[in-house]
Design brief:
- The chain is elongated, with a radius of gyration of 27 Å.
- The chain is an alpha/beta fold.
- Strands 5, 6, 7, 8, 9, 10, 11 and 12 form an 8-stranded mixed β-sheet that branches. It has a 4-stranded parallel β-sheet with strand order 2-1-3-4, with helices on both faces.
- Helix 12 crosses helix 13.
- The longest helix is centred in the N-terminal third of the chain and has 20 residues.
- It is built from 13 helices and 12 strands.
């Protein structure tokens, strides 16, 4: 009786192990809401793997994406990373954002965890990028122009630095006539800097600060071209300029376009319409190729080596910035030729 019981337990263990071996497990961690780019990419990736599984998987192995939400808690992110490897037995991680990677870094380094396709939900410093775009535009539009700057204390350091970067240090010294910090003057700040008769007035800070400063231009004889980082609902004069930043569309090959058109019909309409859906599609394609090449050797070394050669660089976020102009009633968006990639 005891022998038969031990035999059944052993048989069950072997069967369970074999069942587990049928799956190739991939882990993902994020702090997301349903509409975030990371969540869209994860759902599209999972849908692509489901299609691969319906067609036999990778060398007969099903692919399973296991994802957890750490809620922005670094300790929870580290604990869930351990859980993915020690309990869920994933072979690699994908779609982690930079904060999550930093939180789990000690474990990732110690275990030599294969890490693929970092999530890029946000622009690293949108204000600086917009300000740099404004600086570069002003330099090209009027190389001998003069610029006055008003900036909000404590909330615009990166924007001011970006503006100087766009102009170039030497040009900034030559073109900027005066700068006023918000806490240096409690009255009409625009009137305060108007004595320079500069061609441009650049304003950096929160949307509320920019809006308030714009209103202070009304009634003054000085009529500079206003340069702001955000397209606010109103502008005091025609000709005001602002910077726009958006994600550069990913270009697909003809064959990929056909496969994408067939695949996206299987997605939820909201996911299919997302700018980040194609990113998930390309990442899933790339991960499938990596798994096929390492199908007999899912070691960290093979996965990391293959990822280095198979990574689809098109999924790296490239942001395009350009100048929008206010025509007196609305903001006029630029044509694609006017945009510049960063």
């Amino acid at each position: 009786m005891i022998f038969r019981l031990l035999y059944c337990v052993a048989l069950f263990a072997i069967t369970a192990q074999a069942a587990g071996a049928e799956e190739i497990r991939i882990g993902s961690l994020a702090a997301t809401d349903a509409a975030s780019p990371a969540a869209v990419v994860a759902r599209v990736t999972s849908a692509y793997f489901n299609r691969i599984n319906q067609n036999g998987g990778v060398a007969g192995h099903q692919i399973r994406l296991i994802s957890y939400d750490h809620g922005g808690d670094p300790k929870k992110a580290l604990d869930l990373t351990r859980k993915l490897f020690e309990e869920d037995h994933v072979s690699l991680l994908t779609g982690l954002d930079r904060k999550t990677i930093d939180a789990a870094a000690p474990y990732i380094r110690f275990k030599q965890v294969p890490l693929m396709y970092e999530s890029q939900d946000e622009i690293a410093d949108e204000a600086a990028l917009k300000a740099a775009t404004l600086g570069e535009y002003i330099l090209n539009a009027k190389p001998d122009g003069k610029i006055a700057i008003i900036f909000e204390t404590g909330k615009s350091v990166s924007a001011v630095d970006g503006f100087f970067y766009g102009l170039g240090a030497a040009n900034a010294r030559r073109m900027i006539t005066n700068m006023l910090r918000s806490d240096e003057w409690t009255g009409n700040r625009v009137a305060r800097v108007s004595g320079s008769s500069a061609d441009f007035l650049a304003v950096f800070g929160s949307r509320a600060f920019q809006s308030d400063t714009m209103k202070q231009t009304v009634g003054l004889e000085w009529k500079p071209t206003l340069a702001i980082t955000d397209q606010l609902g109103l502008a005091p004069a025609e000709g005001a300029i602002s910077a726009m930043v958006h994600l550069k569309p990913i270009e697909l090959t003809d064959d990929e376009t056909l496969r994408w058109q067939r695949f996206k019909d299987e997605l939820e309409p909201s996911d299919a319409a997302s700018d980040f859906a194609i990113e998930g599609f390309l990442q899933a394609q790339s991960l499938t190729r990596i798994l096929k090449q390492c199908e007999t050797d899912l070691s960290s070394a093979c996965l990391r080596r293959t990822y280095a050669s198979e990574k689809d660089m098109r999924t790296e976020h490239i942001y395009v910035s350009s100048i929008a102009r206010f025509d007196g009633t609305s903001w006029i968006e630029p044509t694609p030729r006017e945009a510049r990639a960063y």
